[in-house]
Amino acid sequence: MKEITRINHIGLRVKDLRTSRQFYEKLGFKFIVGPVGPEPVAIMEHPSGVNINFILNSTDETPSNVLMDIPDKHTGYTHIALEITNTNAVEEQLLSHGIAITEKVEFEGAKFFFIRDPDENVIEFHKPAQQLC
Fold it and tell me: Does the UniProt entry include the keyword Lyase (predicted)?
């Protein structure tokens, strides 16, 4: 469909707005509004234009991510990938905020690494091969 122009937002079901908001603020996201609507939803946006809608109706107290942390592989979105320009700078910023890097990968010149948010959602930071420096 040629009418699709970009991803408008990412929806993440979270347990606690305050905890999620504090975490994503460390990544540079700004709080926009919320909770609003029947779900309810809160919205944060990064200056790059990446928009996250936190869906605030989680009843799950499971400490794991059912799409990533159990042997059975269920269908669904497994992670978001945020493109970056400088892996060293991002790693240093994450570590300065006490955010652990859970995995690092280099593949055909591309570098990427992963973290988890407070609800165990996976976030990838990705530097494409053509931007390596």
Answer: yes
Q: How do residues 67-94 score in pLDDT, each as one tens digit? A: 666 677 666 777 899 999 999 999 999 9
Q: Which CATH number fits domain 1-59: 3.90.1150.10, 3.40.50.300, 3.40.50.150, 3.10.180.10?
A: 3.10.180.10
Q: Which amino acid is at 130?
A: Q
Give Cα separations from 36 to 11, 45, 51, 70, 124 (angstroms): 14, 16, 15, 33, 28
Q: Is the pTM here over 0.85, yes or no?
A: yes
Which part of the chain is CATH 3.10.180.10?
A: 1-59, 62-133
Beta-carbon contacts of 52 under 8 Å, excluding residues fewer than 6 positions away, are 9, 10, 11, 12, 24, 29, 43, 44, 45
